[in-house]
Amino acid sequence: MPNEIRLNPLSEQPLDILVLAAGLGTRMKSGKAKVLHQLAGRPLITHVCRTARALEPRKIHVIVGYQAEQVESAVLETLERDLVSFSKQEQQLGTGDAVMAARQALAGSPATVMILSGDVPLIRAETLRLLLNNHRQYGGACTVLSVRLENPTGYGRMVRDEQGRFLRIVEQKDATPEEKQIREINSGIYCFDTRKLFAALELVKPQNQQGEYYLTDVAQILVAGGEQVNVFLHTDPREVSGINTRADLAEFENLLRRNAVRQLMLDGGVTFIDPSRTYVSPEAEIGRDTIIYPDVQIEGQTIIGEDCELRSGTRITDSRIGHHVKIKDHCLIVDSDIESHCAVGPFAHLRMNAFLAEGSAVGNFVEVKKSRLGRRSKAMHLTYLGDATVGEKTNIGAGTVTCNYDGRQKHQTVIEDNVKIGSDTMLVAPVKVGHGSVTGAGSVVTKDVPPDTLVAGVPAVIRKRFTERNDDGER
Ligand code: UD1
Ligand code: CA
């Protein structure tokens, strides 16, 4: 006889997720809400929200309070507006009170609610899925995710009877010396039957050392009411560690960085000259045989191709870099695109959608903003290219400046193919230099330059028209 498969009725219940993020986080010693502190380049709260979204819940309810507006906008950076609902906890009276703030939005519906903490950023979606399956399989009123820690200090302890059955959670500050010996801790992550959760929350009293409404008391109240409370003991303690202090934050940052670098070395074939001195965002992608020198930072959703070389002191944020690109020392590259076979730096600054087409190069102290440099074009020294479009095989001489701002508005500069801009040329935008033209050293170009023309002087005037060209279109 085939095994009969019976779905627990709970498995058909919709899933809501509730994220607690109203607290200040006193132990951070900060004027800024704890969940707004950055980990791996983005606020703590966004890490949890992304993981929550991976479970495809019906809704993600975020409890906000301290600096509510800033927390809300951080959440909306990662979650679609119609997936989120915010509830405000007016006074931070404890985790139980925080959940109560969402009563209007949640209570009454036959749903499962999963509770997450905004300050537990490393929890993986896979683990949460296991917890949810476990909750649905055993069908209790509550399932608590617990772990065993070498050092359980600071966490709520899981108290069990002699038979190992769960009794209650006791907070560090309320624990007896014997209870403090317990190494199994409450991760602060749970699944609840929504209606039973809110019924039990009504009975929570702030009778403890901190005078707070503890969410953790709900477990004991449910047990006393004859409800089933299950414990899901997880094996990876690091995943459920909470961030409470800046020391915790630094430790997590390090952990994330080490993991990202290790994975890139072992699975990605990337060389790090000194892995301990390189920062790589967990979202970055790097191609094989790329070599990264010490003190390089790769942030956000950056993609780097194969066989590139990134020299010391460089920071790259949210940018895309092709194959065989050399980035020399001390470059800052933000929101930009660099195609294959380009060379950048030393001391170059690319920002706001700077685009370097294949085989082009920018060198020492060159800033490129909202500008496009065509294939095999070069700007090697002390140059500012802002709001400019440069064609192919054009050379921009040392000290060239696109004067793009008239004090009120930004204007465009267009430089076509095969142009030679002489050293120290000022291009007063809006202005266009036609293909094959040349500007003399020190020119101040205030009017459009026709193709194949030499201009020079202050202001630049036409000195010569070129006629002969070779097959490559060069003179
Ligand atoms: C909590 C648990 C503890 C568990 C630990 C795991 C309680 C009483 N204790 O303790 O058993 O081991 O998490 O990390 O729940 N928050 C609010 N409003 C409040 C208070 C807190 O929204 O009034 C939010 C915080 O912003 C934070 C989360 O709830 O994101 C947890 O609060 P926190 O004060 O850090 O609780 P812990 O002392 O760590
Ligand atoms: Ca905490």
How does this structure look, described?
This protein is an alpha/beta fold. The protein is 18% helix and 30% strand. It is built from nine helices and 42 strands. A twelve-stranded mixed beta sheet has the order 12-15-18-21-24-27-30-33-36-39-41-42, with helices on one face. A nine-stranded parallel beta sheet has the order 14-17-20-23-26-29-32-35-38, with no helix packed on it. α1 crosses α2. The termini are far apart. Mean pLDDT is 94; it is low at 1-5. Residues 20-23, 63, 65, 89, 92-95, 97-98, 117-120, 155-156, 169, 171, 185-188, 214-216, 242 line the site of uridine-diphosphate-N-acetylglucosamine. Calcium ion binds next to loops.
Query: Helicity level, as a percent range?
Result: 10-25%
Quaternary class: single chain
Number of helical segments? 9
Report the end-to-end length measured between terminal Cα atoms: 88 Å
The outline comes out as elongated
Bound molecules: uridine-diphosphate-N-acetylglucosamine, calcium ion
By DSSP, the count of extended strands is 42
Low-confidence stretches: 1-5
C-alpha Rg, in Å?
Answer: 30 Å
Mean pLDDT: 94
Largest sheet: 12 strands, mixed
Strand order, sheet with most strands: 12-15-18-21-24-27-30-33-36-39-41-42
Strand residues, percent: 25-35%
